[in-house]
Amino acid sequence: MAAIPKRLMLILAIAAGICVGLSAPLMAQSKEEGIKLLNEAMALKEKARANEDVKKAVEKYEQALRIFEKVKFDQGIGWVANNLGIVYSDWGQYARAVEYYEKSLAIARKVTDPKAEANALNNLGNVYYDWSQYAKAVDFYEKSLAIGRDLGDLKGEGQTLNNLGNVYKDWGQYDKAVDYFEKSLAIKRKLGDLKGEGVSLNNLGNVYSDWGQYDKAVDYYEKSLAIARKLTDPKAEANALNNLGNVYYDWGQYAKAVEFYEKSLAIGRELGDLKGEGASLNNLGLVYKDWGQYDKAVECYEKDLAICRKLGDLKGEGETLNNLGIVFADWGQYDKAVDYYEKSLAIKTELKDRKGEGTTLNNLV
């Protein structure tokens, strides 16, 4: 079962700008106006509650990109390309994300900006990780890691080590994953980064959970939960609670799993964190399905599906449709199951998600 967050994304920070009107002709616009548009787009994306907000941010990114290209402001082009890559990655449109990250990488190398180069390489690793192309992900992460070490950027090094740990975890190479997460944890502690320490502890819990060492997983998750509460970080608290639910689900202790998922769900709703809310609903659906409570499973998955559609999360929508298909198949309602599988397959085909296509096709057989 997937745990959130699965990875850390490095995002270039731009100084805050003041809003400007968009009515002036493009020819009269300046580099400074492009930067202000970029800042507006970043603010919209950060506060987005629905897919329409993200689409508005994309419009502003594209306006800024046109200005930067017109005035030949390479650094600005790199900034926008990086942020557009993040949007398309979040949308599950990995081929588009790769295009923008490669553009950002080319600019970073052109202007000899090693920190931006490491950032672009890291984000390319993120895309290929999400795309389940683990060998490519490792290649990009290792290149990013080498630059971070050359620069003496301990924070960046710790984040990239964390990302490598995630890849090896999902690749089933648990000993390597533990090694990378422990190195990341050591750096976070050296920097006095308590929040980062909580993330690394959480990820070590993920490895031991996948490895079937549930007692160790619980220990790491409880340490991560304690840090989240110490920092009054409700999002991290919800994540740790969700992951404790994952462990108890894998352990076959469904009542405990539901208890932790419900606590995580309550925090997500209180925060207005739709993505976190959807993840908890998805996990509750999985528990209720395996518990044979199919009506409750369908209810949870349908709520998750509505959130995926509201967020424009095509990948999540495809996965949830597939999960609904599984529930109806287990429930003996095969016509409904086939309908959901076919809808899921169409989305996975559109996203060129070959692994996902294979899973759904197998369910259809």
Written overview of the protein:
Helix content is 79%, strand content 0%. The protein has a domain at 273-356: Serine Threonine Protein Phosphatase 5, Tetratricopeptide repeat. The longest helix has 20 residues, at 51-70. The protein is mostly helical and 365 residues long. It starts with 30 loop residues before the first helix and ends with a helix. The radius of gyration is 21 Å and the shape is globular.
Offer a concise description of the structure.
The chain is mainly alpha-helical and 365 residues long.
Key features of this structure:
365 residues, mainly alpha, 17 helices, 0% strand
N- to C-terminal distance: 23 Å
The low-confidence runs, each spanning 5 or more residues with pLDDT under 50, are 1-28
CATH topology description of the domain at 273-356:
Serine Threonine Protein Phosphatase 5, Tetratricopeptide repeat
Tally of helical runs: 17
Q: Overall mean pLDDT score?
A: 90
Largest beta-sheet characterization:
none
Secondary structure layout plus pairing:
Elements: H1 31-47, H2 51-70, H3 74-90, H4 94-110, H5 114-130, H6 134-151, H7 154-170, H8 174-191, H9 194-210, H10 214-230, H11 234-250, H12 254-271, H13 274-290, H14 294-311, H15 314-330, H16 334-350, H17 354-364
